[in-house]
Design goal:
It contains 15 helices and twelve strands. By secondary structure, it is of the alpha/beta class. A hairpin with a 3-residue loop joins β8 and β9. It binds guanosine-5'-diphosphate.
Amino acid sequence: ALTTGIVGLPNVGKSTLFNAITQAGAESANYPFCTIDPNVGIVEVPDARLDKLTELVNPKKTIPTAFEFTDIAGIVEGASKGEGLGNKFLSHIRQVDAISHVVRCFADDNITHVSGGVNPLHDIEVINLELILADLESVDKRIGRVAKLAKSRDKEAVAELPVLEQLKETFENEKPARSIDFDEEQMKIVKQLHLLTSKPVLYVANVSEDDLVSDGDNEYVQQVKEFAAAEGSDVIVICAKIEAEIAELEGEEKEMFLEELGIEESGLDQLIRAAYSLLGLETYFTAGEQEVRAWTYRHGTKAPQAAGIIHTDFERGFIRAETVSYDDLVDAGNMVVAKERGRVRLEGKDYIVKDGDVIHFRFNV
Ligand code: GDP
């Protein structure tokens, strides 16, 4: 399963946020494919469409889809120099598919800041630089090998070398790989390098209770937003402390608490949705009388593989996917009317599933 790693300097609120994630926790019995690991938190993906489908179909059960956050503890300056803990930290980042970078944007004299004062841009740089230096080292090593092959006119090496050199120059200017606009062919080469700084990043600005409620971004948040915009990354503003409280509530209680605070959606829910889309994940639905359920697939997945997410038999025996878009189904009010209107399509094995499709798979057993 794809996962996003929670990263940040010490004392920025990572554990508080991760606790909120596990507290809000999904019932893992519903998600046997998720990892069981104390450093992994499974979250349900909030989706208003699922509530609407439940209203329409009135099933016995409704099951949201879920995905994983991984807590990546303790980066320290110097991680890229490869000393014990630092090495471990980098190898954990290598295993995640995207990064949620928590940045301290709250002032609190009682909580020590590792670099002496609240300074989000400096914090971001410390972590980004460690990742850039680690990537520089891998690219340097690879250049050594590839340059030799390129000299003897190895075709692949000739294509790879200029990409490596551009990466090296970028790293030497202390910029991440994701800041380069590669074309499709180059992108394929970059993917194979498994760089740390080519992973997509989301910045999580952790603000104080007061700043969250007063709605205005504080100056720290503005700095983070400017930095992220230049890089093409998104920023989610949360107060980890409040999230930990919200995570203990459910349903109406949760709604009332949010209303009291004057916010529409909890920061954690925003973070979940942003990380989900950062990973290139989308949702299709199955809607029967027994169960209405959301399923996660990767953007670009074809119908048989999407069916295989429910059960391998569905993929092996795939015949076709009876498909209606969420909007068409809601417009029609029910399947019968949607069919009468010709909105229900019979899609074959080459159909690329779209976000919001409501699907009934036909298969041979
Ligand atoms: P970590 O080292 O990044 O995991 O940071 P922690 O989650 O342990 O948080 C460090 C300290 O900051 C703890 O004392 C938290 O209670 C406090 N803290 C975390 N988030 C917030 C927040 O949103 N507001 C305030 N005031 N304190 C926070």
